[in-house]
Design a protein that fits this description.
Layout lengths: L28 H4 L31 E9 L3 H11 L13 E4 L6 H9 L3 E4 L10 H15 L8 E2 L8 H9 L4 E2 L3 E2 L14 E3 L19 E6 L2 E2 L1 E2 L7 E2 L16 H16 L6 E5 L15 H15 L4 E4 L1 H9 L16 E3 L12 H4 L4 E3 L6 E3 L38 E2 L4 E2 L8 E3 L37 H4 L2 H19 L6
Parallel strand pairs: 1-2, 1-12, 1-13, 2-3, 4-5, 5-8, 6-9
Antiparallel strand pairs: 7-8, 10-11, 14-19, 15-16, 17-18
GO biological process, one term: carbohydrate metabolic process
InterPro entries: CE4 (IPR052740), Glyco_hydro/deAcase_b/a-brl (IPR011330)
Protein name: NodB homology domain-containing protein
Length: 513
C-alpha cells in the first residue's frame, strides 16, 4: 500500500495502481530461442541483443548511462517533480541533464510539452488516453496531436512506451508501420550477475525480441522488424535477487519481502544494482518515473520529502563515480548506434548542449517562456483546459479526431501549424513564417570539453539531500493560472476519492496516511 494519499491512484493523470510493477522474471532460457548473425547485423542500422557493450568496446571504455524517463500527462507539477531531481545537475561535459517524457495527451497542457521539448528534452508517445495494448488510432493520434498542438516535429517523436507496459506483438508491428525508431516497454528482469541475465544493451528486432519471452508470440525469432529498436527497461533488484525486481517507481515498492516501504532499503538496493552494472558490462540502468507520485506542489497531497531526498541521494552518489551520464533514451540510442570510448564522447552530438539563439525581446510563440509570454491561446474546455501556441481546436482532441478544426477567437486569425522545414524554436505560428533559414538559424554550444584520456569525468552540480534547504531549481512555468487545476483536477480528485472509498469497502481494504 502506498504511503501517500491513496486517492491519487484514481486520478486520470495516474495509472490505476502501480504501472509497470514486476513480481519476477519475464523471460527464460527455454522461451528465448534467440539467434543473431553478427556478420550481417552491424551498427548503426542493426544490433544483436547482447550483454556486451556495442562496438566491441571494453567495459572500462564505456560510460555508465542512467536513463531518466517519465510517463503520462505533462503539467507544471509533473515538470516540477522531474526538475527537483535534474535541474541542478550537469553531465561531465557541463551540459544540463535531458530526459525522455512518454506523453499521454489526456490532461496534458500542450504549451508545456512545447517548452519541455525546446529546452532539449525528448518527447515520446504514450498513447492519447493511456490505454494498454493500444489500437493504431491511439498511437498515431498521439503523434498527430503532439505535432499539431505542441509543435513537436514528427521526425523528433522517435519512441513509444505502452501504458501499464501492456503491449503485444501487434503493438510492435503498428509502431514499425508508423516508422517509430524504438519501443521501450519490455523489461530486463534478471540481474546482470546471473549468467542468464536478460539485461541486454538496446538491440534491433531484425532477429526478433529477446525480452519478455514469456509473453505469447514473442522471441524465438519473432517478431522480425528490421531496424526497429527495443530499449529494455532495466530493473533494480533487492536482496531477493530475481525474486525481488523493481522496475517503474521502485520507491513505491517495499524491499526484501517486507510489508512496508523503507527509503533506506530502497537506496541500498538501488546502489547495489548500480554497482553490479558499473563493475560489469555497464549495461544502462534506468529511473522510470510517474512524476505525480513525487510532486511537491500538487494540491492536497503531502510531499514525500524522505523519498525525494533518497532519490537525490542516489543520484548524488552515482554522479560521484567516474564516467556516469544521466541521459534520455534518444541520447542513449545515439551512442549505441555510434559507440565511442569515454575519451571521445565529445563526438556524440546528442550529448552536447545546444541552445537556440532567439532574440530575447522577440515576441514569438516558440516554446521559450521569455518569447511567448502573453501569446498563448487558452483553450477553456470544461473537462480540462490547456494552453497552446498553435491555436485552440474547436473540440478536444480524441483518438477519433486528434487534430480538430481550429477555432480562432473573434477578431484574430488562425494560427499556423509547424511545417517540416523549420525548427520549433524558430517558427512563428501567428505570423506563419520561419524567422530564419538553414544558414541563419543558429544554436549556442555550451558544451565543456571533456578531460583528456577519460580524466575528470564525474558529473557536476550534484544536489543536496538536505530537505531544509531551498531547492536550487526554479518551478517550471509556475505562473500558470489556477484554473488549470481547479477546473479539471478537483472533479477528478473527488470522483477518484469516492471510487477509492467504494473499492476499499468492497475489498475490506485499510490504509494509513
Amino acid at each position: 500500500m502506498l504511503p501517500y494519499a491513496p486517492f491519487l491512484l484514481f486520478l486520470p493523470l495516474l495509472v490505476l495502481g502501480q504501472d509497470g510493477g514486476l513480481s519476477g522474471p519475464t523471460t527464460s532460457t527455454e522461451s528465448l530461442g534467440y539467434s543473431c548473425d553478427t556478420s550481417k547485423c552491424q551498427l548503426p542500422a542493426c544490433n544483436c541483443a547482447s550483454t556486451s557493450p556495442p562496438g566491441g568496446l571494453h567495459p572500462s571504455e564505456v560510460p555508465q548511462f542512467i536513463v531518466f524517463t517519465a510517463d503520462d500527462a505533462i503539467q507544471s507539477y509533473t515538470l516540477d517533480a522531474v526538475n527537483q531531481f535534474l535541474a541542478h545537475r550537469k553531465n561531465p561535459n557541463g551540459c544540463p541533464i535531458k530526459m525522455t517524457y512518454f506523453t499521454s495527451l489526456s490532461y496534458t497542457n500542450y504549451t508545456m510539452v512545447t517548452d519541455w521539448y525546446v529546452a532539449g528534452n525528448e518527447i515520446a508517445d504514450h498513447t492519447m488516453t493511456h490505454v494498454g495494448t493500444p489500437p493504431a488510432e491511439e498511437i498515431n493520434g498521439n503523434l498527430i496531436a503532439l505535432n499539431a498542438l505542441a509543435g513537436i516535429p514528427l521526425s523528433s517523436i522517435k519512441g513509444f512506451r505502452a501504458p501499464y507496459l501492456n503491449y503485444s506483438v501487434e503493438t510492435l508491428k503498428l509502431l514499425y508501420q508508423s516508422e517509430f525508431i524504438y519501443d521501450s516497454s519490455a523489461a530486463s528482469s534478471i540481474p546482470v550477475t546471473d549468467p542468464n541475465t536478460d539485461a541486454y544493451w538496446p538491440y534491433t528486432l531484425d532477429y526478433g525480441m529477446a525480452n519478455n519471452c514469456l509473453q505469447p508470440g514473442q522471441c524465438r525469432g519473432e517478431p522480425k522488424l528490421p531496424g526497429f529498436w527495443e530499449i529494455p527497461m532495466y530493473s533494480f533488484f533487492d536482496k531477493l535477487g530475481s525474486r525481488g525486481p523493481h522496475l517503474m517507481d521502485p520507491w513505491l515498492d517495499a524491499a526484501n519481502g517486507a510489508s512496508k516501504i523503507n527509503d533506506q532499503d530502497t537506496l541500498e538496493y538501488m546502489q547495489s544494482t548500480f554497482n553490479a552494472h558499473y563493475s560489469g558490462n555497464r549495461q544502462p540502468i534506468g529511473l522510470y518515473t510517474h512524476p505525480i507520485h513525487l510532486a511537491a506542489n500538487y494540491p492536497g497531497v503531502n510531499t514525500p520529502k524522505s523519498t525525494i531526498n533518497m532519490i537525490n541521494a542516489f543520484l548524488d552518489w552515482a554522479q560521484e563515480q567516474q564516467n556516469v551520464w544521466i541521459v534520455s533514451n534518444e541520447q542513449l540510442l545515439d551512442w549505441v548506434q555510434h559507440p565511442v570510448p569515454v575519451s571521445q564522447l565529445d563526438r556524440v552530438s546528442s550529448l552536447r548542449c545546444l541552445t537556440p539563439q532567439v532574440d530575447a525581446s522577440a515576441k514569438i510563440c516558440n516554446g521559450i517562456p521569455q518569447n511567448e509570454d502573453g501569446l498563448l491561446s487558452h483553450c477553456a474546455f470544461s473537462d480540462f483546459p490547456f494552453y497552446t501556441c498553435y491555436g485552440c481546436p474547436s473540440q478536444q482532441p480524441s483518438p477519433a479526431n486528434p487534430n480538430p478544426e481550429q477555432q480562432a477567437p473573434s477578431g484574430q486569425g488562425l494560427r499556423h501549424r509547424l511545417p517540416s522545414n523549420c525548427a520549433t524554436a524558430f517558427w512563428d505560428p501567428i505570423a506563419g513564417n520561419c524567422i530564419c533559414n538553414s544558414k541563419t538559424c543558429t544554436f549556442f554550444d555550451n558544451t565543456r570539453t571533456i578531460g583528456p584520456n577519460g580524466a575528470n569525468l564525474t558529473g557536476g552540480g550534484t544536489g543536496t539531500t538536505n530537505s531544509s534547504q531551498t531547492p536550487s531549481y526554479v518551478p517550471f512555468n509556475g505562473a500558470v493560472p489556477k484554473s488549470l487545476v481547479t477546473a479539471g483536477v478537483w472533479p477528478a480528485l473527488i470522483l477518484g476519492f469516492v471510487g477509492w472509498l467504494i473499492g476499499a469497502c468492497l475489498l475490506g481494504m485499510s490504509w494509513t496516511p
